[in-house]
Amino acid sequence: MIKITNKDFSLDDLYSNIKSHKNGAVSIFLGTVREDLFNEKESIEAIFLECYEDLAIKQLDKIRTEAIHKWNLNNCIIVHRVGKIPLGDKIVFIMTSSPHREESIRSNEFIIDQLKTKAAFWKFSQYGDDSKIVEAKEKDLEKNLKWKDVIKN
Amino acid sequence: MKVTVKYFSWIRVKLNKSQDLFEIEEKLNFKDLKLFLIKKDNFFSEIFSDDSIKFFINFKEIENETIDIVDGDELGILPPVTGG
User: Is B81 on the interface with A (CB under 8 A)?
Assistant: First the structure.
């Protein structure tokens, strides 16, 4: 299941979609809106998430399929919000299920590292009426690259 | 033919619009389309010289500039992504 939505979502509802007697492990990553740690002058009120939806769906589907095959997952759910998201609220949710914990944990980390650099979403920090583009981070690219050899094998 | 060009992130902000629909008379490839866009607005020369920006035709990343552009195509111009 892949979903791009401008609405908040319930963790319990999403878990009910993945619950299975075949699962021995379910791993969750939940990305949320935090304050800007490097800006002491202004406080973030929210972020705005922009998306090229048709492309992002294809990119997320490719990442999800790759993870399912590599780690033999039972299931995988990816939900990404768009639009204005207040401080503290959910942005992205990844849930992976497998018979054993290693596969669900590793695949979950793989998916968020891929999503950060390969899916067509853009963040803006909102400070009152002012809005600033969030720049791409070098460390996200480095995290993505570390999976290259893992995926080859 | 008609070609849609979609803008995102700082490019959308700078152009103050999310897309354009261009009517183009002659047959062209992506390299020609770049020249066409630069003629329309010199801001595109900045975009096309920025190595961090990626270009997609109908949701597929362009790898060869000689790819033909046909009626109804959608060009996506994507700065580095920052989701998650």
Answer: yes
**What is the value of pTM for the model shown?**
0.93
Residue A18 and residue A112: Cα distance in Å, rounded?
A: 18
> B8 CB near a chain A CB, below 8 Å?
yes
In this structure, CATH architecture of domain B2-78: Roll (3.10)
User: To the nearest whole angstrom, how far is the Cα of B82 from the nearest Cα of chain A?
Assistant: 5
What are the residue ranges in chain B where pLDDT is below 70? none
- ipTM reported for the complex, 2 dp: 0.93
Fold of A2-152: Aldehyde Oxidoreductase; domain 3 (3.90.1170)
Pairing of strands B2-7, A83-86: unpaired
HEC sequence for A6-31: CCCCCHHHHHHHHCCCCCCEEEEEEE
